[in-house]
Amino acid sequence: MTRLYDIDPLRALPAAAYREAAFGADVAHIYRNDWVFVGTADEVAEPGDFVTTELGGQPVIVQRNQEGRLTAMSNMCAHRGTLLVEGHGNTKRFQCPYHAWTFADDGRLLAVPYTNRDDVDRDVHCLPSYVADEWHGLVFASLNSDVAPLAERFAHLDAIASEADMAGLNHWTAHRGDETWEANWKLVISNAMESYHLFKVHEETLEPYSPTSGAYYIVGNADATATGGISSRGGGGDYTLLSLLPNFVGVLTGDSLLWQAVQPLAWNRTRIVTGGAYRSPSPENSKGLAKLAGKAAASAGAMLPDFLPEDEAICLRGQRAASGDYTPGVLVPMEQVISDFHHYLNRQLHGADVPPVRTSADVGIPRQNEAASL
Ligand code: FES
Ligand SMILES: [Fe+2]
Fold first, then answer.
1. What value, to the nearest 5°, has the Cα angle with vertex 362 and ends 356 and 363?
2. What is the pLDDT of residues 149-205, one digit of tens each?
3. How far is the CA of 124 from the centre of ligand 1 (A)?
């Protein structure tokens, strides 16, 4: 693999990681190669339900088939490459809007108008299949059929997700946030992963609810990390932050999961989708949350004071500076989760070996972190 820049797990990323030249490798070795979060199980609950997405720019349909299994296949017509379908829906077959070639939900070509049987080889002109799977209510897909099973990948976080009954939460898909930031996806996801910046960037919004001083490391590796923090919202209690690489971060409390997912659109442009899942099936059934419905109640930015613009501003500052060069600074103990991310990048981009699953004891970070001592 070509190496455009070095990745040190103990230091920040060099500015080169955020520039145009680095983007091709991100697409090839991460977004077109690895598992990528694409949505939630509620969106594809019934046989025939499908959603459309892009994996590293490749248009993909993710569907629950008639047997109830999640599948994925190309969303480009096998004739002249037109986008077959947009948005979401429920169907057993897909007909192209251009010349009406028609495909089964497993990609087989069924019908080709105005041709004789020999004109088009149906076995050759089918839609390539990819892989899709779910983990505690979250749906992932990959263009790489040799990718390691999803269940193995996040196994070290299973106990946390099960204990919180994450799969039993109801995703309010009608109340999603969707915006585009002018920053590289690595800046956006690493910012979402760490709690070190709360006291500064979110001094008046998040810090009063979830102070930096209460953040701690739980367990993680190069695939996924759980960190925690003391929450003063409601009756207090801890929250758990799940970072599922490369593109999902969710904050899990006793009764909700507020999440943020990134989709790289270009080297300096990233789509941010926010959503939430709750015990209550809908805002109407939840007294406390009903008043928030209609203004993207489920987006992370609506449950709490609106902190997302603060994150956007700080990510944009990172991107604006990335034309320059600097010596990457050391990551502080509280940024262990960023170190896990760097191991992930090192493996995907440079083929490096990565450490096994580690807990707070292994990484030497006390469960209750004291910001004042840093
Ligand atoms: S491009 Fe799809 S049928 Fe022609
Ligand atoms: Fe933030």
1. 95
2. 999 999 999 999 999 999 999 998 888 999 999 999 999 999 999 999 999 999 999
3. 15
Ligand 1 neighbours, Cβ below 6 Å, are 77, 79-80, 82, 96, 98-99, 101
pLDDT of 370 > 60? The answer is no
Q: What is the pLDDT of residue 284?
A: 67
CATH code at position 294: 3.90.380.10
Structural domain ending residue among the three candidates 123, 146, 169: 146
According to DSSP, the residues that pair with 93 across neighbouring strands are: 104
Q: For ligand 1, atom 4, name the residue with the nearest CA.
A: 99
Strand partners, 276: 258
How far apart are the CA of 26 and the centre of ligand 1, in A?
Answer: 30
Q: What is the CATH number of the domain that holds 77?
A: 2.102.10.10
Same domain? 191 vs 292:
yes
pLDDT bin (cut points 50, 70, 90) of residue 287 is low
363 and 253 housed in the same domain: yes
Domain of residue 111, residue span: 35-146
Res. 304: pLDDT tops 70: no
Strands annotated E in the chain: 36-40, 49-55, 58-64, 70-74, 88-90, 93-95, 102-104, 109-111, 129-135, 138-142, 170-171, 177-181, 216-220, 224-230, 238-244, 248-252, 256-266, 269-278, 358-359
Please identify every residue whose CB atom is under 5 Å from ligand 2, which is an ion.
311
* Three-state SS at 361: helix
Q: Which residues contact 320 (CB under 8 A, 6 or more apart)?
A: none
Instruction: Encode pLDDT of 60-114 as tens digits.
Output: 999 999 999 999 999 999 999 999 999 999 999 999 999 999 999 999 999 999 9
